[in-house]
Write a structure and sequence with these properties.
5-stranded mixed beta sheet; 35% helix; peptidoglycan synthesis; Glyco_trans_51
């Protein structure tokens, strides 16, 4: 955690930086010292009360976390989560559903006084209200007054249009009577609370007293004062005309009119009326809703929920869905993706806006999805490349070929010699397949870790043949690929087609030490009462031993530090990553998949029309990954001490133990007892004599 990152999250949540934090949603910050008055919130595992906390950020970590009021040391504290999106009934409307018991009595009194005094007496249509409105309209030259009951307003808002026709009014009256017959008065009033319109926030409609209370006052409905209730009720006559942010004087006058009516109806004493009348509007400064547009992630959440809930339940039951998204990481990733692609296009002479991308970032140990981008322009809803774009994955599959070899045969280790000489394989149609290396060269006999580090195609294809293509295909399928993995000779070079999220699931097994973990977007779901409906625990299955996975991770570290992904190490030398680049033969698709000790990310870059983009894994996807993690704090990848692992200095040419004369040596891990015992035949160079003889 850094102070900058925390401030960004507080800003997203709408917390207010102040000199003296005295109420929920306030915070103070002096360099690395923070005091936050955390808001109360109903989490899936219980209600969190408002909590004043103080702490310091030291060396990137939280220190001295305390309850500021009592001085008590705290083990943990949670910020209320960011609202990232909502499922609506086919309209662009936000809701925070409330129950009758949530709404204070003074709001109900104000509403009935202004909108429908005979609500509990009439049967959906009020003749008294119609006559009163008619008399007002005849005798007054001011704005006309309507005679609609609360029930009629609900019917019009929920079922009908705003057409000013007799036929619409007739249908409204009939439907109102039917509604009164079928439902109790309190049910109708509660529905009205959640449907009534309070204005616009840009293109988003604000419906319901729950959302209006948050939007205008940054508080729950139950905490409204009589004056705030009067303001909201007063706005119903004209949400734009009495908007307290744009028309303060009109809003104040209208609020005081409602307070006067409440006093006249004996709902407020004279003292209460005068006290409330003297208060300010107390509208919070920031008008924007605490809502982040993340359509690609919301698309994933919707799909995952459809396994357990119907579309109607998602739209109407008031479910609260707690997700895994990290809002600060999401926003930063979106910004970096757009700027990096623009830079790549410019540097390589590629047509502007022709490249597209998908990015998934997860927790490397749990599989929780922290950020997801499905389009270069992240707020754009449409084709979700992170979930739906199936593309050949190229060389990012090679670590799994190595892992399959280590798992299926004890004859392999990272120093095993593999031939990178010409290979010709007869296909079913009688043709010959002859794989080539990217550099069009042959490299002779190479240790396995070098073949992985330099991404030699011929050596990997030969390794696949030695292990057995059927064996490699079965292993990859068991590791997390849904559907059949065809046993093709070119499988070790990545002819397999996967979506970015499927590849993230595959790499999750490497990052987590051999456990198959499906990337998760949801942690819990509660009903509209806050009761837990479902937990989404981490579900893991071991597909490879920890020791063999350890070896492959070490090989992938070499890819980053010395191999095809060394650009990442050069740009970020103080954080160790493991990863692998991937490029398709026709240069259409660019991939990079990698992980630190804390995060895993998969990046795809290419064109939607599948035309040649003239990009490689190193020239497109890798720079996107690098730019993202240049700004995201992450734990370095530490393989750590394993009792059954020993490290040896190995000659890069022969795969044998290095000696003082070997020019290229790398420290390589082995399962204890399997390391080479023979020393490399490195010899000192012969020195020329003084006379050059």
């Amino acid at each position: 955690m850094t102070a900058t990152r925390l401030r960004q999250e507080l800003e997203l949540l709408g917390y207010r930086k102040v000199v003296k934090a005295t109420r929920q949603g306030d915070y103070e910050n002096y360099k690395g010292s923070f005091f936050i008055h955390i808001r109360e919130f109903q989490f899936w595992d219980g209600e969190q009360e408002s909590l004043p906390v103080s702490f310091n950020i030291q060396s990137g970590r939280i220190a001295e976390l305390k309850n500021r009021d009592s001085g008590e040391t705290l083990q943990m504290a949670r910020l209320d989560p960011l609202l990232i999106g909502q499922f609506h009934p086919n309209r662009l409307e936000d809701r925070i559903l409330v129950h009758l018991d949530d709404v204070p009595e003074h709001f109900k009194q104000a509403l009935l006084t202004v909108e429908d005094r005979d609500f509990y007496e009439h049967s959906g249509v009020s003749p008294k209200a119609i006559m009163r409105a008619l008399w007002h309209n005849i005798t007054s030259d001011r704005r006309s007054q309507g005679g609609s009951t609360i029930t009629q307003q609900l019917v019009k808002n929920y079922f009908l249009t705003n057409d000013r026709t007799l036929w619409r009014k007739f249908k409204e009256a009939i439907m109102s009577v039917i509604l009164e017959i079928r439902y109790e008065k309190d049910d109708i009033l509660q529905a009205y609370y959640n449907e009534v319109y309070f204005g616009q926030d840009g293109g988003r409609a604000i419906h319901g007293v729950g959302l209006a209370s948050q939007y205008f006052f940054d508080k729950r409905v139950r905490d409204l004062t009589p004056a705030q209730s009067a303001l909201l009720v007063g706005m119903l006559k004209s949400p734009s005309g009495y908007n307290p942010r744009r028309k303060k004087e009109a809003a104040l006058k209208r609020r005081n009119q409602v307070l006067k009516l409440m006093h006249d109806q004996k709902f407020l004493t004279k003292q209460e009326y005068e006290q409330q009348r003297e208060t300010t509007l107390s509208v919070v400064n920031k008008p924007e809703l605490k809502l982040s547009r993340v359509p690609a992630f919301m698309d994933l959440v919707r799909r995952r929920l459809q396994d357990s809930y119907s579309e109607e339940e998602l739209k109407s039951e008031g479910l609260q869905i707690f997700t895994t998204l990290d809002p600060v990481m999401q926003r930063y990733t979106e910004e970096k993706v757009a700027s990096t692609l623009t830079r790549i296009e410019k540097s390589k002479g590629i047509e502007d806006d022709s490249l597209q991308t998908a990015v998934i970032i997860t927790s490397s140990q749990t599989g929780n999805i922290l950020a997801l981008v499905g389009d270069r322009y992240s707020d754009k809803a449409g084709f979700n490349r992170a979930i739906d774009a199936k593309r050949q994955i190229g060389s990012v599959i090679k670590p799994y070929v190595v892992l399959a070899a280590l798992e299926k045969s004890k004859q392999y280790d990272l120093a095993t010699i593999i031939s990178d000489e010409p290979l010709s394989l007869k296909q079913r149609d009688g043709t010959l397949w002859e794989p080539r290396n990217y550099d069009r060269e042959y490299h002779g006999q190479v240790p396995l870790f070098v073949a992985l580090m330099e991404s030699y195609n011929i050596a990997m294809a030969r390794l696949g043949q030695q292990v057995g293509i059927d064996t490699v295909a079965d292993f990859i399928e068991q590791a997390g690929v849904e559907g059949e993995v065809r046993a093709l000779d070119a499988l070790p070079l990545g002819v397999l087609e996967l979506t970015p999220i499927e590849l993230a699931g595959l790499y999750q097994s490497l990052a987590s030490g051999g456990l198959k973990i499906k990337p998760a977007a949801i942690t819990a779901v509660t009903d509209n009462q806050g009761e837990l409906l479902e937990r989404y625990p981490i579900d893991s299955v071991r597909i490879a031993s920890e020791l063999n996975t350890y070896l492959v991770k070490a090989g992938m570290q070499l890819v980053v530090e010395k191999g095809t992904a060394r650009y990442l190490h050069n740009q970020n030398p103080f954080t160790r990553f493991a990863g692998k680049t991937g490029t398709t033969n026709d240069l259409k698709d660019s991939w990079f998949a990698g992980f630190s000790g804390e995060h895993l990310a998969v990046v795809w870059v290419g064109r939607d029309d599948s035309q040649e983009a003239n990009i490689t894994g190193s020239s497109a996807a890798l720079p996107v990954f690098t730019d993202i993690f240049n700004g995201i704090p992450t734990e370095t990848l530490q393989l750590g001490y394993e009792e059954d692992i020993e490290w040896k200095l190995i000659d890069q040419d022969s795969g044998l133990l290095s000696n003082d004369y070997c020019e290229e040596s790398i420290e390589i891990p082995f399962i204890r007892g399997t390391a080479p015992t023979e020393e490399a035949p490195c010899q000192p160079e012969e020195e020329e004599s003084f006379f050059g003889l």
